[in-house]
């Protein structure tokens, strides 16, 4: 799929917002509510995947 510069920026911003929201939700639930560090590790892993996807989306346009 070919994206122009503006579309790539919007997709990357959306991926970053999703990553931050997901990290906040699972980090809060896992770390504070359930005290289960597996949730926190899952949140970090998924955050890294979404952030990596955002970086790759922007790098394709460079």
UniProtKB/TrEMBL annotation:
Keywords: Membrane, Transmembrane, Transmembrane helix. The keyword Transmembrane applies. The chain crosses the membrane at residues 12-31, 37-58. It comes from the Bacteria. This is DUF2568 domain-containing protein. The lineage of its organism: Bacteria, Pseudomonadati, Pseudomonadota, Gammaproteobacteria, Acidiferrobacterales.
């Amino acid at each position: 799929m070919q994206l122009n510069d503006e579309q790539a920026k919007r997709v990357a911003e959306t991926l970053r917002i999703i990553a931050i929201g997901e990290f906040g939700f699972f980090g809060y639930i896992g770390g504070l509510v359930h005290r289960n560090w597996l949730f926190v590790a899952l949140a970090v892993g998924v955050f890294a995947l979404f952030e990596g996807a955002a970086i790759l989306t922007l790098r394709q346009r460079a």
